[in-house]
Specification:
Length: about 325
């Protein structure tokens, strides 16, 4: 199969490219490098020993995307291309709606014109809103606490409407929980620009001495140790979930939603402790105020993906911490050495 990865140079896209190539598929990447760089693609080629066709382009650009679809015989699209910083989305909502929705519409138009019938979409657990976990795919979408989350909810609806209007179309909505970790080679990983918004990159940068102290956002939640709990998933497991989804799409039509999580939550303090014990590096932290918009708990019911896709997360929390640290310590400044 030839799989087009829109936003494929990014954190999850690059790990997915490795799994697709290792499984014998061909990969075409389109990325504008707004939150990544071409080096990640080179590293994927190094890891796999295979080559990737790549384009530096804005997925919103219909003219360029039409050419890319004409030049490659695409069987399936995976749509990773999105802006994802929750805080920034509350300050610049129009930028988020424009980028995230327009990339989706352009891909759908190009697919229709080129006769491509399968799309896998990067959605998020955030679409469940404030319901009580574990989150099951049959729950209705909830109210999102930020514009980023709303773009995901809207794109799920757009893709569902398109599948309802075209009986030949397959839409797979993958709702990711909290991806962390890196490829065990230490060659690819998460490369946030500026101050990291997410927990694991922040912890890794404190471990590396790039940041002085981690602030744990709130210690007074109604959870076992007072800190928030999340369903952290190793990015390589997540990438394998994409491979399963792409293969499933070959023989199924219509819309399917899958949670990609482990089903087991860990608290912020448990993450800090696991990082320390699996790497031997101490994390300087302080417990501070709650971060607006954070939910106390979020975790998946991961049984549907196991039953339907035959996919389950295999890696442990120790693997997640060790591989995050391996990437961070070998690439202290990410891809930009
Ligand atoms: P990322 O920022 O590393 O990857 C996204 C990639 O898309 C980047 O390489 C960026 O340069 C590219 N991109 C953005 N807009 C583009 C455009 N208009 N044209 C071309 N390329 C564009 O993020 P990620 O963590 O790999 O996330 C991938 C997808 O998964 C995103 O849609 C994100 O919203 C979603 N998601 C991520 C998480 C997470 O915690 N990382 C959780 C749930 C959902
Ligand atoms: C995890 C936990 C924080 C940083 C976000 C998006 C979601 C999805 C995944 C993308 C929380 C705590 C964090 C820090 C901390 N994104 N924390 N100190 O908020 O669960 O999910 O990323 O597409 O939509 O909302 O992930 O990594 O930001 O936080 O204490 O410096 O770590 O309060 O409990 P979150 P996160």
């Amino acid at each position: 199969m030839v799989v087009l990865l829109a936003g494929g140079a990014g954190y999850i896209g690059s790990h997915t490219a490795v799994e697709l190539l290792n499984a014998g598929h061909d990969v075409v990447i389109v990325d504008d490098y707004s939150n990544s760089c071409p080096e990640s693609i080179k590293r994927v080629e190094e890891i796999t020993g295979k080559s990737i066709v790549s384009y530096e382009a804005d997925v919103k650009d219909k003219e360029v995307m039409t050419k890319i679809f004409a030049e490659n015989k695409i069987d399936c699209v995976i749509h990773f291309a999105g802006l994802k910083a929750v805080g920034e989305s509350t300050r610049l909502p129009a930028k988020y709606y424009r980028n995230n929705i327009d990339t989706t519409l352009t891909l759908l138009e190009c697919m229709k014109e080129a006769g491509v019938k399968k799309i896998v979409f990067s959605s998020s657990a955030t679409v469940y809103g404030e319901q009580k976990p574990p989150y099951v795919e049959t729950m209705p979408r909830g109210a999102c606490s930020n514009p980023y989350g709303w773009t995901k909810a809207m794109m799920e609806q757009i893709l569902t409407d398109c599948a309802n209007a075209d009986s030949e179309l397959t839409v797979i909505l993958l709702r990711y929980f909290n991806p962390i970790g890196a490829h065990p080679s230490g060659k690819i990983g998460e490369d946030p620009q500026g101050i990291p918004n997410n927990l694991m990159p922040y912890v890794s940068q404190v471990a590396a001495g790039r940041r002085e102290q981690l602030t744990i956002f709130g210690g007074d939640y109604d959870t076992p140790d007072g800190t928030c709990r999340r369903d952290y998933i190793h990015v390589v497991d997540l990438a394998c979930g994409h491979l399963k989804a792409v293969e499933y799409a070959q023989s199924h039509k219509g819309v399917e939603i899958f949670n990609l999580g482990t089903g087991t939550p860990y608290s912020v303090l448990e993450i800090v402790n696991a990082f320390e014990s699996s790497t031997g590096v101490k994390i300087n932290y302080v417990i501070g105020d709650r971060r607006p918009g954070d939910l106390p708990d979020s975790w998946a019911d991961a049984s549907k993906a196991a039953k339907v896709l035959g996919w389950e997360a295999k890696k442990t929390l120790e693997d997640m911490c060790k591989d995050s640290w391996n990437w961070q310590s070998h690439n202290p400044n990410g891809y930009r050495q």
